[in-house]
Amino acid sequence: MSDVTDTGAKPGGEVDDDAEVPAVGGIVAELRHMSAEERARHEAEVAEVVAPDREIEVGVGDTLLAMRDVTLRFGGLVALDSVSFEIKRGEILGLIGPNGAGKTTCFNVITGVYRPTAGQVLLEGHPLGRRKRYAITQLGIARTFQNIRLFNEMTALENVVVGADARHRTSVLGALVRGPRHHREERQAVERAMALLEFVGIADRAADKAKNLPYGYQRRLEIARALATEPKLLCLDEPAAGFNPAEKEGLMELIRTIRDDGYTVLLIEHDMRLVMGVTDRIVVLEFGKKIAAGLPAEIRENPAVIAAYLGVPDDGVA
Amino acid sequence: MNHQVVTYLAEGVDWIRFDVDALLGQFWNNTIEGLSQGSIYALVALGYTLVYGVLRLINFAHSEVFVFGVFAAYFTFYGLGFRPGPTVTLGIGELILFLLLALIAAMAVSGATAVVLERVAYRPLRRRNAPSLVFLITAIGASFVMQQVLFIWRGGNAEQAIRLLRPEPVFTVFNTAVTNIQIITVLAALVLLVVADTFINRTRLGRGIRAVAQDPDTATLMGVNKERVIMITFLVGGLLAGAAALFYLMKIPQGASYQGGFLLGIKAFTAAVLGGIGNLRGALLGGLLLGVVENYGQSLFGGDWRDIVAFVLLIVILMFRPTGILGESLGKARV
Fold first, then answer.
1. Where are the beta strands (DSSP E) in A91-205?
2. What is the distance between the alpha carbons of residues A32 and A132, in angstroms, rounded to a whole number?
3. How far apart are CA B212 and CA B225, in angstroms?
4. Per-residue model confidence as pLDDT tens digits over A144-159
5. Which site among A134, A138, A141, A181 would you substitute to test the B interface, given the most B Cβ atoms closer than 10 Å to its Cβ?
6. What is the pTM of this model?
7. Closest Cα of chain A to B131: distance in Å?
């Protein structure tokens, strides 16, 4: 009660072990002063937090999410036309297509923003049905946004903690009186959030407001926030938009690491090179319809895909 | 220099005065009394500010949430066996116990009223995606309904005052006595405001409230249960209004009245806008400032000018700082 500072993030090195949440500045300072050995141990701890032991063995190959004949109409406009595909556990599935093909709409259906007019989305065999968005997130689907949507007035750390909150249970009363359980969960959430910020490589700006972060950091922060909800499926909507080639390379590396840590990734991306380089399989949409699916090499050679991208008329000769 | 007690502006003009002597003479008295009234405004203002931050709705029925708390406190006294009449002498232990009981009752009733109001009046509109004007008129309507319910139940006259505590000077600063009631009001309000601030800034639920205030759609996609956040927001606002209700009842000369919320509600709302609506600390600052300034105004211009001073202050400050003194917060990012 004595402390009325703005946020949970306190600058300066006052790391008070059994009171309050750990100070962000303290953690960052600590990292700087670590020996190589300590640093390695710390990184192992971070990796442990980011990829915790799953209760269920990660069975690569079984279907995690299935779109079954999903149709979405807005009045007369057919945004998605009987789209079906499956995402297998442990893979990176690329979702590509020209502008307006329905890629982001697909994300919106999967995350519960829109409900399909017809057809079903199944997560681990169970239809999402009429579940609310927050409930779908708690089931294990998280996303990032094509146009960055962070909580701008919160610090980077707080943004991630909001994601982590989805996994925590404190009663209203517990939070009002700030009981021991709330205290413990707060600590865990902050530690986990900090580890995720390190994982995506932006821990040095943890205490800065999201709106003050550089563009690339904001994109990575969105990924950290989504990971904090402990998703089974991570949906990334053009995470490399606006990046230069070097930044794109770094991001591909990150996405691969996320996959290798046992997450399943659904990736919307415009940059063909990036998509081909990072995905395990690709689904192609055009005008709300699935026109192709397969390995990157197959997609590259697929005439329908080439036509869709290069705008070759259907009848060959105009 | 000027030995006149009252300085009139012109010969024969008696509807306004410009009494600098009174202003200076009662300066500290006004300041202390203003702070104690301002604390009550601030507690009620938080309810407006929280709901506005999350829903972009001016919950005009919040004044009746407050009045329900006033009645709850009044009838708690009544239920404990107190009757209107001269102040009874109580031991300090008893006094604290009874005041605490009344506080809990008022907070519980106001909190519950706010949550029920949200369920019955606003949630159905949200389900149907009603435009914001519909919410506003519903809020005004709900305010009248709740007021009239109290009128039908208790009639138009204010209840007779029940006093547990006589205002008594505890100590003197700047030759001005500070009463026990003033001290209790200011201290209790400060404690509650710190608790509320901590709750919003440092707990999971508070973070959820801020997330929804900034971007409700993104918040739900990050696993925040928006409906629950809204309920908690109304609950917290109601609890604070309930606490304000008890201090108000201890202060006013009469007992609970069905109309008691109208002017106080408007002033609390003014305080919230003055400080920067959606901004918790702004509500505190706005409340205290309003309380103090209207007391100065009363001394300077005469009693009838009190409310005019309050609202002219609002208009003047908003001309120079349209977002209030501390600026809008909670959901600054939202357009």
1. 92-96, 118-123, 126-127, 141-143
2. 43
3. 9
4. 998 999 999 899 999 9
5. A134
6. 0.82
7. 20
